[in-house]
Amino acid sequence: ALKINRLPGGELIVAGIFRKFAGVSRNNLVVLTPQGAVHNTYNSNGGITNGFIEQVIPMAGQKAALMVGSFTQFDFRSANRIVKLKYQ
After folding, report:
1. What is the pLDDT of residues 22-56, one digit of tens each?
2. Which of 5, 32, 33, 49 has the highest local Cβ count within 10 Å?
3. Hey, which residues does 49 pair with through a beta bridge?
4. Contact 28, 52 (CB under 8 A)
């Protein structure tokens, strides 16, 4: 199942179990523009590994969100089940 959250700026965070999104390599996570295109300032195919996202919590007034789940890596780095995603 996909989890989709809208951020305050209208962007969308889509999390789930996938390796590509709209033909672009993404590892279980993609940030989309308000129009639904892959966001060009968030460009990581590291994404989420060794688990999945259970909750995405947009951070009011910021282009950021907290993501919580069973994962142990985000963007090829250790992330002990919680990570803050920031983008421009």
Report:
1. 888 888 888 899 999 998 877 667 778 888 888 88
2. 32
3. 73
4. yes
